[in-house]
Amino acid sequence: MNRLLILNGSLSELTLIDKAKELGYYVITSGNNPSLIGHSHADKYIEADYSNKEAILEIVKKNNIDRIVSCANDFGVITAAYVAEKMGFPGHDTYKNASILHNKDLFKTFIQKLGLRTPISVPFDKKEDALEYTKKVEYPIIVKATDLTGGKGILRADNYEEAKHAVDNAFNCSRVKHIVIEPFIVGNQQTIHTFIKDKKVISSVSNDCFSFINPYLIQAELFPAKGIEKIQAELYRYIEKICSELNLVDGMLTLQYIVKNGKPYIIEIMRRALGNQYFTVADEMNGFPWEEALIRAETGMDLSVLKHTESKAKYAGHYGIMANRNGSVKSYSIPESIKSHIFKEIEMIKPGENINNHLNERIAYIYYKYDNYDEALYDVLHMNENIKIEFKD
User: SS3 helix, strand, coil % of the chain, rounded to 5?
Assistant: First the structure.
């Protein structure tokens, strides 16, 4: 039985772990948090920081591991590419290309050279240079650490005083001490998630992104993205141009972008699983076996067996139940009008447990399907007020 290392074992990797075992792999997981749910589903867990590429390479060598799969984190993609390159494993981009795509400064420089529409970013590795730049920039701006995900190290600034705080925040959060500053584009944030074969898009789903509690963290999604039919061909051209330019391997490719005046502006790219079990909704929307496709692509398995089945949902999405403060959770309640559309629910913080960082922690995830767009959009926009959270304190 081939031995497969899947980096990390959070909720986001859980379905990948289960699918890999279905496909016949002996699954080993890594990560520096042994309490994550996915590790209990694996055949073996080895504690290690998956962002430490040399440590992961040593694990692969010592444990006779045959293949590696990335996780729902940019560090994991870079590590997986590095290990695959050193070991001669198939299914991953070169380490150089993975680094370009998953570091915000390198990626934005790359797509600006390609001439793709994007907010023009200016990279900095020295705080004093960044602060000097903010004295003459046109506001509003957004300041980002180049090497983080999940909204970490990102702040908007509307003036110089806010910019100083944003620059400090980004440098303090960044592991590599690199940041980018770019214009803040006002528009609708969306995602298009695709599967690439021979540098062409063969399957895709799209969604609108909503951020309620934390403006830099996606809390809810609604599939498909509004107006996607008007910009999908352009987004496909962008994706396929990136694939051709870098000679990317088959697999996942996601663009996040902001639509302003009907035009998409690219802000992020990912070649990995998305967080919060995104594939749970993607599977419902277009009948493509997303988990199996990722495992097959990143391990070099045959992709010809991947087929689309009938869509199970007209509109669908996921919502992370979050509170507006920290504290001990007593319970939460979902109105029947929303509950009747839920097809999956995952509790993350049980009654009596604490929320320690309400800007990032979810009490639960809910996954929903609708037949009517207006009803779906109304519920998504009002879930924060209609889903009630009761605290013990």
Answer: 35, 30, 35
